[in-house]
């Protein structure tokens, strides 16, 4: 028996938004005699059903784009499904992603795919530029059937395999059965849900954590689909499933009496009382913030003055934190690391390679003798062996103490009383 950690469970339980683009190939345009409006209406109906299917997986599928290949296909679309899928993935990565931000693209084709194939998608490819794709055939005039084909192929992209005999969804057939049934299914099986959780845990498809703004959604608003779309103030799903007390599920409008819906200083529909802490201190250099009782937002972050001594005089406060070279060494090299001896920092006087204080027009500028502890960070793991931190993040952080009474500002070791 397997148990999820609280961190994993939190990751599983978060709502996902798979921003979908559907590309309509040239054969589809010809099949519908160039009636793009009719194809759009069909796509909207299909995506609406797709959302009804995926809502049980805590997934929303906002349609953020529809593209028609009216003048001819932009890839070689053939009945060989795998070749077409690979070409479509390459085209998405090379061209579509740069034009339209989205998470997943599907090619809607009127070609008769070879054999019994009516759709295809790479296994566990969600959020990958070439592999977060699928193709599906206009196999049936019934929208629900086509929606199930997309749901099935997207399921593969989410790491879900075909169901086996012992898998159960409480109905005669499930979404991930190898063959589509009549009537078409609506639910994913218990096997599918376990495989999806495994995918989340091992592949971390973080592109699906971003909720698109309502202005990005191109399909007409549907009140009750739990997607916030144009013209809606809120959408909490159907009245029987709505969990948002601020929202009238029937109209997708906020109740007239509410003060707020979401926010750090908002509890269900009302401002939190004045004096409620909304942002705790991050360090001894930070200050807590409290709700005002008149706004849903937590006040702007405040902190102790820059230059205030911190960490037993080992550092000085800087924008709410206490930067020290010791802490930076721990972050770069782990718990055994310590700040290097002074001699290591002499390398920063070289002004070449990684050893410098600043770059101007891509030319490295050596540190002056008094500034050597404001250039490249040096640490020790083994005593008397200098280890440098690499890359831009390997420079000593701004605000770090470089001498008693001095801090690094603009790569210069500056008097703390005049630095700010």
The radius of gyration is: 28 Å
What's the count of strands?
A: 23
Strand order of the largest sheet: 4-2-5-7-6
- Please write the CATH class name of the largest domain: Alpha Beta
Supply the CATH architecture of the largest domain.
3-Layer(aba) Sandwich
Distance between the ends: 58 Å
- Look at the structure and name the CATH superfamily of the largest domain: Collagenase (Catalytic Domain)
The share of residues in helices is: 10-25%
Q: How would you state the average pLDDT, rounded?
A: 93
Per the principal axes of the C-alpha atoms, what is the gross shape? globular
Number of domains: 3
Tally of separate helices: 8
What percent of residues are in strands? Answer: 15-25%
CATH topology heading of the largest domain: Collagenase (Catalytic Domain)
Question: Describe the biggest sheet?
Answer: 5 strands, mixed
Describe this structure in words.
Disulfide bonds join 127-207, 167-191, 169-174, 278-298. It is found in: Secreted. Its cofactor is Zn(2+). Keywords: Disulfide bond, Glycoprotein, Hemostasis impairing toxin, Hydrolase, Metal-binding, Secreted, Toxin, Zinc, Zymogen. This protein is of the alpha+beta class. It has 3 domains: 12-209, Collagenase (Catalytic Domain), CATH 3.40.390.10; 224-258, no CATH class; 323-415, YefM-like fold. It is built from 8 helices and 23 strands. The chain has helices spanning 6-13, 26-31, 36-54, 81-99, 143-157, 190-203, 325-333, 416-419, and strands spanning 16-17, 20-24, 59-60, 63-68, 104-109, 119-120, 133-137, 247-248, 253-254, 266-267, 270-271, 277-279, 289-290, 309-310, 315-316, 338-339, 358-360, 363-365, 378-380, 387-388, 401-403, 406-409, 412-415. The strands form 9 sheets. The protein has a 5-stranded mixed sheet with strand order 4-2-5-7-6, sandwiched between helices. A 3-stranded antiparallel sheet has the order 16-19-20, covered by helices on one side. The chain starts with 5 loop residues before the first helix and ends with a helix.
């Amino acid at each position: 028996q397997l148990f999820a950690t609280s961190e994993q469970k939190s990751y599983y339980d978060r709502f996902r938004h798979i921003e979908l683009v559907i590309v309509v190939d040239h054969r589809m345009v010809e099949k519908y005699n160039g009636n793009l409006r009719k194809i759009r209406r069909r796509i909207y109906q299909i995506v609406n059903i797709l959302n009804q299917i995926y809502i049980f997986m805590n997934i929303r599928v906002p349609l953020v784009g529809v593209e028609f290949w009216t003048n001819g296909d932009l890839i070689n679309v053939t009945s060989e499904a795998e070749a077409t899928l690979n070409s479509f993935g390459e085209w998405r990565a090379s061209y579509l992603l740069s034009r339209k931000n989205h998470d997943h693209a599907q090619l809607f084709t009127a070609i008769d795919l070879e054999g019994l194939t009516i759709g295809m998608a790479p296994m566990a490819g969600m959020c990958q530029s070439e592999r977060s794709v699928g193709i599906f055939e206009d196999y049936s005039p019934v929208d629900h059937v086509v929606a199930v084909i997309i749901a099935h192929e997207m399921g593969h992209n989410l790491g879900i395999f075909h169901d086996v005999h012992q898998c159960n969804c409480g109905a005669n057939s499930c979404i991930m059965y190898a063959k589509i049934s009549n009537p078409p299914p609506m639910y994913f099986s218990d096997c599918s849900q376990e495989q999806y959780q495994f995918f989340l845990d091992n592949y971390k498809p973080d592109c699906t954590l971003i909720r698109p703004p309502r202005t990005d959604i191109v399909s007409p608003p549907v009140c009750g689909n739990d997607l916030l779309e144009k013209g809606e103030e809120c959408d909490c799903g159907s009245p029987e499933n709505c969990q948002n007390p601020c929202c009238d599920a029937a109209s997708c409008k906020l109740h007239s009496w509410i003060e707020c819906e979401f926010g750090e200083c908002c509890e269900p529909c009302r401002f939190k009382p004045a004096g409620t802490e909304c942002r705790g201190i991050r360090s001894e250099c930070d200050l807590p913030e409290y709700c005002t009782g008149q706004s849903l937002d937590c006040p702007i972050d405040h902190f102790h003055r820059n230059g205030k001594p911190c960490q037993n005089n080992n550092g000085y406060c800087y924008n709410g934190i206490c930067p020290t070279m010791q802490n930076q060494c721990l972050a770069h090299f782990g718990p055994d690391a310590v700040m290097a001896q002074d001699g290591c920092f002499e390398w920063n006087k070289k002004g070449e390679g990684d050893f410098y204080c600043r770059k101007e027009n891509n030319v490295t500028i050596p540190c002056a003798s008094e500034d050597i502890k404001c250039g490249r960070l040096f640490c020790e793991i083994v005593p008397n062996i200098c280890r440098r931190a690499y890359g831009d993040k390997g420079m000593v952080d701004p605000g770090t103490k470089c001498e008693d009474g001095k801090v690094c500002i603009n790569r210069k070791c500056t008097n703390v009383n005049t630095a700010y």
